[in-house]
Amino acid sequence: MQISIADVLDGEQLAAAQDVLRHSPFTDARASAGWAAMEVKQARMAVSSPAVEVLREQIRLALLAHATFLLAAQPKVIIGPAFVRYGVGCGYGSHTDDPIMEGIRIDAAFTLFLSAPDTYEGGALLIESTAGQEAIKLAAGSVHLYPATSLHGVAPVISGERLVAVGWVRSTIRDAARRELLFDLETARRNLFNTHGKTPAFDLLSKSAANLVRMWCED
Predict the structure, then answer these.
(1) What is the DSSP letter of 140?
(2) Rounded to whole angstroms, how far apart are CA atoms 92 and 106?
(3) Largest Cα–Cα distance in the chain?
(4) Distance, CA of 99 to CA of 128 (rounded, Å)
(5) Cα distance between residue 39 and residue 44, in whole Å
(6) Strands of the sheet with 75-86, listed across from one edge
(7) pLDDT tens digit sequence for 81-90
């Protein structure tokens, strides 16, 4: 499943992240790409430093504290994020992420937008499916989560600068379709509880959802 999640970072967190990255050196991001993706990537990536590592951990904690992200990603491990800057003319051609990073299987990927969409032209996240290509450009502080199995890229930036944090998830539920089913069941379960309280129907739905997790999870 794909899902856009607003306000993962609040205004104060977003301003602090932008300030750290404003004062951080960046290097050619092609070194982080696979041998084929390297040829279609034009961007710069923040160099690791104590401040960047603190920011990376703060974003991980913000993601793990967000109920919708937890429910949609079912994260066991979060890799990254890496902080990437796209200037004018920079973009990332169609590619698939490596299936294993840092010795860990990758099931989902996410882009956390750190630049306001009206500060740059172009630069949309492009995700391909059998229905065609979808362009995603979200408000600063918002995240788009999508299966790592998809072909995706970044449209060239025409003006301004696109700043994002990109990361990857090893999920306790490997299959994207099963993650979506569990997301839908949990959403229905919570709506049912909010409307009618704890009922026999709620208990039965809770039992089914919990047992599906037991059946599918990889702990």
Answers:
(1) T
(2) 20
(3) 58
(4) 17
(5) 14
(6) 3-5, 143-147, 108-113, 162-171, 75-86, 44-46, 26-28
(7) 999 999 999 9
